[in-house]
Amino acid sequence: RSKKRRVGFPVRVAAMAVACAAALFGAEAARAEGAGLSLAGRVGTPGFGLELSKSVTPRVNLRCGLNLLGYNRDLDADLAAGSVAATIHFDGELRLKTVGLLADLYASKGFHLTGGVIYNRTTIRLDARPVAPIIINDQSYTPDEIGTLSGTAKLGRQWAPYAGIGFGNPVASASRVSFLFDLGVVFQGQPHLTLAASRAAAAGLQADVDAAAELVNRDHFDKSYLKYYPVVSFGIGVRLF
Questions:
Q1: Which string of b and e fits 167-197 if b means at least 16 CB within 10 Å?
Q2: pTM score of the predicted model
């Protein structure tokens, strides 16, 4: 009996890169005089990235970019409900993982409007091993009953629209090297947290953990400003041809 295998993020990224290349080079039939291809390195709020840009017409470029960033830190989270406080220490890990499929419309030689879609796999992972009894959803649990308490927060939907403005045209620039700047917003939607205890067999534990997660989602993640991820990005582009 065959088992269905899950495709990992690296495979999906490779598939996205192939799709990007096909889209960029497939536009060759519409290529205008002076059009070309460029490769850029970027740094900004989406992380560190590499980006391919392809000119389709004198005023339109297509681009595809991959951005990654990892960040670790400790934090304290309140899993209380009602009037009962229950602060617990977590080890936190932020992983920014996005692929952008974007189109630039140039209103002038360097200024452009940008629209497109972002493949968003950004997550925050939390792990905690309590050393003393804690209160979760008004119920007390010992460290042995909980084991390891783990949480995963997904920052919005998997596919998210993007809109922005920018400066620089690495494909059409007279110089082989260009400086780039982008300012925009990813309409990512609402973040969502899930929590799990490794010893969820304890009576009622997982239900209480789920209730605590929903409390965090309601009181901390249900904010309108969290639906939008700001993008500020600087880059250096090199025209390949």
A1: ebbbbbbeeeebebebebebebbebbbebbb
A2: 0.74
Please report, for the chain, how many H helices and E strands are present, in that order.
3, 13
How far apart (Å, rounded) are the C-alpha atoms in residues 166 and 48?
18
Q: Of 35, 50, 130, nearest to 89 (Cα)?
A: 130
Q: Which stretches of the chain are DSSP H helices? A: 9-26, 143-146, 205-216
Contact 102, 165 (CB under 8 A): no
Q: In the numeric block, which tokens belong to residue 192?
A: 């969502």
27's tokens: 């536009």
Q: Which DSSP state fits 31?
A: P
**Measured between alpha carbons, how far is 234 from 91 in angstroms, rounded to an integer?**
30
Q: Residue 146: CA atoms inside 13 Å, Cβ hemisphere, count?
A: 23
pLDDT in tens, 13-62: 555 555 565 555 544 443 444 458 999 999 999 999 999 999 999 899 99
Cα Rg of the chain (Å, integer): 23
Distance CA 24, CA 31 (A): 10
Residue 55 DSSP code: E
CA–CA separation, 205 and 189 (whole Å): 29
DSSP state of 176: S
CA–CA separation, 205 and 39 (whole Å): 51
Max CA distance (Å), the chain: 71
Specify the pairing of strand 149-154 against strand 111-120: unpaired
Residue burial 49-66, b: 16+ Cβ < 10 Å; e: rest: bebbbbbbeeebbbbbbb
